[in-house]
């Protein structure tokens, strides 16, 4: 639904007309008073989608979850994707034999390979779920 439809709702009458037109059965379930109170109490904003690539920088950092791929909530998969990010990253740490013993400032080739593999393996799937969620 275009954001402009919500901009037209300026008072209780506009709100009730809108809900009767688009969500007639919802008013009885939510209750008119609560609907009015909650609608005008909460700000309206646009939904944002982020698609980063790459997800890592050398052997220094990686972004996961919403930092790498926030998506609109229509599939309800945002948290699941974040959990999957961690699961896949953990398996890559094992696959590339990444150890938690690098000294600050050292280059860690295994970690760099694992982070690059993460970007390579996740990019296509994460871009796809973001697009599908629209």
Automatic annotation (TrEMBL):
One of its GO terms (molecular function) is kynurenine 3-monooxygenase activity. One of its GO terms (cellular component) is mitochondrial outer membrane. InterPro entries: FAD-bd, FAD/NAD-bd_sf. Its cofactor is FAD. Gene3D superfamilies: FAD/NAD(P)-binding domain. Pfam families: FAD_binding_3. One of its GO terms (biological process) is kynurenine metabolic process. This is Kynurenine 3-monooxygenase, mitochondrial. Keywords: FAD, Flavoprotein, Monooxygenase, NADP, Oxidoreductase. Residues 53-95 form the FAD-binding domain.
